[in-house]
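Structure in, sequence out. Go:
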């Protein structure tokens, strides 16, 4: 990432922690959604989160895990994380250059991070390098087939990146599959995370009664769309789980 992007994440770290993590009532449902996808893979294992931010997930997984490590490139995010109980060992580093030994992690996850990583192929390769023989990698990615994913993850970069917009990439499933293959990984699971942008903070835009009704409508359509196999292809965010290729 560039210095401009580091400055952005350092500047917004406190607001992110206060409004978009398990610290706030509005941010908690989104955190719980990801924890449901992750928690079953961490019990008794050495886990690493790449792009840990203020340790939102690490603090809630440390009790189930053998060893917890978090990596982030934002000094301010890590400063907040270090104040939280159960955050584990925290390292300042970028996703494509992780300062850890080969084959030392049993479970590596990275959520809402890959979209901001310019060297995403190298980042996935680094995470694969760190996986133990039976290790598992879990990442989420913005889907370019989703209309909003296309607008924000493709057109946004093409039209506005030259003018200083934050890097934000959407991926095709084929790109993720290719990255896994090149990194010596094989896909074992794929499921939709969400079809719409985060709507947990609608109360900031609308009165309480209206925001609750809108949230209920979004919840209804999220559940309905996830049940349709065809529609899953168009989810805004998709969760991919992979493991080392077995000989």
């Amino acid at each position: 990432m560039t210095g401009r992007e580091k400055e952005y994440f350092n500047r917004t770290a406190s607001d992110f922690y206060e409004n978009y993590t398990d610290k706030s009532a509005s941010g908690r449902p989104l955190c719980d959604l990801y924890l449901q996808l992750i928690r079953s893979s961490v019990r008794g294992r050495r886990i690493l989160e790449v792009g840990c931010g203020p340790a939102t997930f690490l603090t809630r997984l440390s009790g189930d895990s053998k060893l917890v490590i978090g990596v982030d490139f934002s000094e301010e995010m890590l400063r907040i994380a270090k104040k939280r109980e159960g955050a584990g060992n925290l390292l300042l580093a970028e996703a494509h250059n992780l300062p850890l030994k080969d084959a030392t992690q049993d479970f590596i996850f990275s959520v809402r991070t890959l979209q901001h990583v310019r060297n995403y192929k190298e980042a996935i390769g680094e995470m694969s390098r760190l996986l133990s023989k039976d290790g598992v990698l879990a990442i989420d990615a913005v889907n370019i087939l989703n209309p909003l994913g296309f607008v924000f993850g493709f057109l946004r970069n093409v039209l506005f990146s030259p003018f200083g917009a934050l890097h934000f990439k959407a991926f095709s499933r084929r790109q993720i599959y290719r990255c896994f293959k090149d990194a010596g990984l094989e896909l074992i699971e794929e499921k939709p995370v969400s079809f719409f942008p985060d709507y947990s903070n609608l109360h900031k835009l609308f009165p309480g009664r209206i925001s609750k009704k809108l949230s209920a409508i979004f919840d209804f359509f999220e559940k309905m769309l996830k049940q349709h196999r065809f529609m899953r292809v168009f989810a805004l965010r998709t969760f991919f789980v992979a493991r080392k290729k077995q000989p």
